[in-house]
Amino acid sequence: xxxxxxxxxxxxxxxxxxxxxxxxxxxxxxxxxxxxxxxxxxxxxxxxxxxxxxxxxxxxxxxxxxxxxxxxxxxxxxxxxxxxxxxxxxxxxxxxxxxxxxxxxxxxxxxxxxxxxxxxxxxxxxxxxxxxxxxxxxxxxxxxxxxxxxxxxxxxxxxxxxxxxxxxxxxxxxxxxxxxxxxxxxxxxxxxx
Length: 193
Prior knowledge:
Low-confidence stretches: 1-5, 71-83
Strand content: 5-15%
Order of helices and strands: HEHHEEHHHEEHHH
CATH superfamily of the largest domain: Winged helix-like DNA-binding domain superfamily/Winged helix DNA-binding domain
Strand order of the largest sheet: 1-3-2
Number of strands: 5
Mean pLDDT: 76
Shape: elongated
């Protein structure tokens, strides 16, 4: 399906899309709560964005979570889909997580050089770690790299994206202050409900 260029012309729709892009894996309730949008209006715009190939959604537990098709980070864990224990990882995955923890932003090429694992093995295990919501993709020096997902990094990323939206006039000041107030008063697990 082709992306419909006019899909983001509507102000509310653009705001919803930007919020989802900044918060991949966000639930319907979180979008509605943060953006203070009527339920039926939100459903309409989410369906419109999905039909026009801007976002996609999938069920995680009893919730439907939304992702931008143009996001730059992998799925973030939510309170309904708890992050797995690191003890459940293979030895290769534990090695990769430790390297990523020690070298935030490290890319696959550097991981291959350090571990002496082949490209296919690195790619497979990185994909599994992303699916388990242990790491996320970041852009570092114009290259794709990986970081370990922590609550503090998640909150920091959300705040950074919010400030950028305000600077680029993608949200108004009133909405910015409303979201900031909620971010400051909630912990990360509550934000993703």
